[in-house]
What we know:
CATH architecture of the largest domain: 3-Layer(aba) Sandwich
Number of helices: 8
Radius of gyration: 18 Å
Distance between the termini: 49 Å
Helix content: 25-40%
Strand content: 15-25%
Low-confidence stretches: none
Largest sheet: 7 strands, mixed
Order of helices and strands: HHEEEEHEHEEEHEEHEHEHE
CATH topology of the largest domain: Rossmann fold
Number of domains: 2
Strand order of the largest sheet: 7-6-5-8-9-13-12
CATH superfamily of the largest domain: Vaccinia Virus protein VP39
Amino acid sequence: MKSLVSWVIRHIPRKYLQLFSHNLLKVASLFYKGKNVTCPVCGSRFRKFLPYGRAARENALCPNCLALERHRLMWLFLKRETTFFQDRLKVLHIAPELCFIKRFKNLSNIEYITGDLESPLAEIKMDVHDIPFEANSFDVVFCNHVLEHVDSDSKACKEINRILKPSGWGIIQSPVYDLPETLEDMAISSPKEREKVFGQSDHVRKYGRDYAKRLSKSGLRVAENQFVKSLSTEEIKKYALPPEETIYFCSKGERD
Length: 256
């Protein structure tokens, strides 16, 4: 199964996976029924989650809603550490994850807008370098696993800072590696070489421990929240959470 998942992720275009994979995984979910793990996003229980990733990780993907480890952690964070599910909020979700779309859209307190340049799941086609909304428009912005793909992460973050209301906040996650600083070389353009250097053929940088500092140069205020460390070992096991994932919680700051 791990080898099959790895092959599919490497060779099937992402837009097709987004459109059709959930239907196929519904069938797979029948073989994973059990009570060992619980997905906090959809409430489904399984003996374990499906493997996922180019180097497939065990116990990663919920076959019912397609939530990964980071999505389950973010859901719990929003539930326990924010008023996202209570306050009246206008929300922009850039490159929306399938596991969240219907659930966020069904919240009566949320005006929920999705946008992306390529994703077939997004309502609005937009470039994160030039977000087509007025300044101070949104209470919340989510932008996860996007910045490692874009030409200018600085410009994208400036746009997010611009459209946030003065009291606005957001979550901006990316893969972060144990490197002293971000590895970036725009001269590397071939997919094969990018996969070798950055880990994926469609990545243009590999973030290091300077990730929060790098984002903050846009004007955003970036807090490195270690929410996962507040959870018990039992919860981490029950929800199959990433034990070291930092949540990059951003709030509107001064513009350059």
